[in-house]
Amino acid sequence: MEETEQPWLPDEIDETFDPLSYADTSPSPETPIIVTPRGGAREVGRSCYQVDTQHGRYLVDCGLNQGRGEKFPDFRGLPPQSVDAVFLTHAHIDHCGGLPVLENRNLLADDARILATPPTASIATLMLEDSLKIHQRETNRTGRIQQFTRRDVEAVCDRFHTINYGGGRISGVSPAVSDTEPAVFQFGNAAHLLGSAWVMLQSGGYRVVFSGDLGGRAPHLPDITPPPEADVLILESTYGDTHSHTSMSDARTALWTDIKRALQTREPVLIPTFAVGRAQTLLLTLSERLHTLSADLRDRIEVVLDGMAVDATTIYHEYVTEEPYVAESLVNRVEESGMTEPFLPANLTTPTTDQERLELLTRAARGDTVPIIVSPSGMLTGGNSPRYLTEFAARLNSATVFLTGYQAQNTVGRQLQAQHQADQQTVTVTTSATPFGTDWPDSSAVQWIRPDEADGPSSDDDLLTRVSLPGSWITPIEGLSGHAAQHGLLSFARTVGPDTIHLVHGPDYAQERLGPHLAENVADVSAVTRSRLLTPIEISGDATVETAAIAPDQIDDTRFTDLDERINHLYELVSQLNEEVAAARNETGLTEQQVREIIRDELGNE
Ligand SMILES: [Zn+2]
Fold it and tell me: Which end of the chain is more exposed for a tag (fewer CB within 10 A), N or C?
């Protein structure tokens, strides 16, 4: 695969390093857009792309890598108050978790807005509040300096400005953007989770499409909205090495078959999950199928939904009749059945206190009920899932623990997965779970250990928990991913038909396999490269795609959410019509009266 011609970064770069001046580039009429990765280049996590035009500076996403010591985007050399707007593709923490740091470091212009769809803004607010708690805990534990505070989270959430799928001029949606900025943006449905979007930016006749994370798999979301043609595509590559996933319906059937088997033998079930997206796919699978069980069994089952997944599901329910956001089939089902909460199965418990969690485990241990516990986090790195796992090990003789998603390095989930794959009879993991009651029941399966006895006396917070459980409990389910595989990525790239493709947000092995595949199969693509951190991508030169500037009102499906935007949009439209009519008048000799009639007619169609 062709490597970018930009120079490698110098060996040592300090905090003042400016990637654009190092690469000796700046926006100009010949190079109207420059994209610089500040995270998420050759990694999954902390997606963040700086976009410079002649009239403004923007970010597309600003994420956090929550694994292994929290990595934020690399903001070095970014002057104070220099970012005029942020486009947020979706609410996963690896795309929005760095936003409060922008606030903390004063990098946003006074009136800069965070532009997102309404569900993305709601879910991101939830995610950022949760992320703050994790950040506070991590900084307390490690003694590192806090990168953002509650005030930063509140301030950055106040900047959210919601925009439905569609688009317009950037200057019309973020007051920090100069009126002279002609650049246009467009959001389209990326079908990755509720409200997720790809983003197109256009300036000086050139276009770039940022895929964000692409889905097209979840049963409750619509298909991906086809993106427009563009000169450059910035494409995610998380599953770029996987030709195609197990089909979603096969994966859901496999999950249900295993759940049913567990229930029939009265085995409690734990499903650690991402709170947003995956949790709702799991819940929908349960709510569609639990009624097929015998009445006797059904009465014993207790579906437990815990933690942030509860609030996220509430947001999903706010949109179950909004077709641009959820699949038409779900909207129809909701409207026909009159049910307002299709994601929630019957017999649902949502514990909010440890006492309630303890009670449901006691009921299960006695054999009174069979719980199916759906709880974040998906890799057992936080939330209550590691605590449930530990209680299961301490209290139960048999259980099923599903792994339903990607398990990153150095997570409890990865340890479980690896030992299961190695056919270990007993799997042992180290976590920092605390019991729901005052102590673990008397069990050799759970031990508290000090991480480093040699360091002298440790506080209780430093105690780690070593958990052993039978390897047969672990049940991985493939194919529930919300990410498009190679085939979906190729089809998106073909629709964009770019001159160059820059791979982002993927591990090395995935990008190395996806790159040549795209180079061979996307017509007329001249280069597919793996983008590098702090290495600018110039959008200019001999574009092979015809991307004559599109006016804001030519973007389909433009719907603005507040009056300001609407007025702004109409103002734009009137100015443009005036110009068009003036031009037509020169040719046809229309009178002033006729001009006004034409404008009235056109506005009537808006
Ligand atoms: Zn995502």
Answer: C
What is the mean pLDDT, run by run of 10 residues, along the chain of 606 residues?
A: 54 89 93 96 90 97 84 95 98 96 98 98 97 92 93 98 96 94 97 97 95 94 96 95 90 96 95 95 95 93 96 97 93 92 93 97 94 96 95 96 89 95 96 90 89 50 86 95 94 97 93 95 94 92 44 44 51 54 55 56 44
Q: Which two structure tokens, joined as six digits, stand for 13?
A: 């770069």
Predicted TM-score (pTM) of this structure: 0.85
CA-wise closest residue to 464 among 433, 442, 428, 427: 433
Strand order in the sheet with 464-470: 426-431, 464-470, 446-449
Q: How many other C-beta atoms can be found within 10 angstroms of the C-beta atom of residue 93?
A: 22
Is residue 473 within 8 Å of residue 402, measured between CB atoms?
no
CA distance 188 to 215: 12
Cβ atoms of 501 and 518 closer than 8 Å? yes
**Token output for 52:** 């410079």
The CA 224 to ligand 1 mean position distance, Å, reads: 14
Token reading at 582:
């003036």
User: Which residue type occupies 547?
Assistant: T
The sign one gets for the Cα dihedral 143, 149, 153, 156 is: negative
Measured in Å, residue 238 CA sits from the centre of ligand 1 at 10
- Which of 462, 438, 437 minimizes the C-alpha distance to 448? 462
Going from the Cα of 90 to the center of ligand 1, the distance in angstroms, rounded, reads 7
Q: Which of 218, 233, 289, 229 is nearest to 258 (CA)?
A: 289
Q: How far is the CA of 491 from the centre of ligand 1 (A)?
A: 19
Q: How far is the CA of 415 from the centre of ligand 1 (A)?
A: 23
Q: Using an 8 Å Cβ cutoff, are 394 and 446 in contact? A: yes
**Cα-based distances in Å from 222 to 196, 227, 320, 325, 421:** 11, 14, 12, 7, 35
Instruction: Give the distance (Å) from ligand 1 centre to CA of residue 40.
Output: 12
Beta bridge partners of 603: none
3-state secondary structure (DSSP) of residue 570: helix
- pLDDT value for 6: 43
Tell me the C-alpha distance between 267 and 469, whole Å. 14
* Bridge pairing between strands 48-52 and 500-504: unpaired
For 200, phi then psi, to 5°, come to -110, 135
Q: Which two tokens stand for residue 233?
A: 């595509």
150/400 Cα distance (integer angstroms): 38
How much distance in Å is there from the Cα of 323 to the middle of ligand 1? Answer: 21
CA angle 45, 51, 55 (to 5 degrees): 160
Beta strands (DSSP E) in 459-549 are: 464-470, 474-476, 500-504, 527-530, 537-539
- From first CA to last CA, the distance across the chain in angstroms is 47
- Taking the centre of ligand 1 as the mean of its atom positions, its distance from the CA of residue 230, in whole angstroms, is 23
